[in-house]
Write a structure and sequence with these properties.
mainly alpha
């Protein structure tokens, strides 16, 4: 099973996991309350960012993704 650190890094990076990686991550999220809550917060944040920019200023998909990535990186303390 993945560690909490691996799951948080995967969720924050947005990188595509292998089929087995996805299964391991889903198993971890099912069994780990803190990581499951973290994932819920990340989804809510991403949804809020998308909603804000769909109602607000127009950005290209690339600009929107870049902004989302920068916000997540800052929240994770990577910048």
């Amino acid at each position: 099973m993945m560690s909490c650190k691996e799951v948080v890094e995967n969720l924050g990076s947005g990188k595509e996991l292998s089929h087995m990686g996805k299964l391991k991550q889903m198993a971890h999220l099912f069994m780990c309350g803190p990581c499951s809550r973290y994932w819920g917060h990340m989804r809510a944040l991403r949804g809020a960012v998308r909603k804000y920019f769909s109602d607000g200023p127009s950005l290209t998909d690339a600009e929107s993704k870049s902004l989302e990535d920068r916000i997540i990186a800052r929240l994770l303390g990577k910048t």
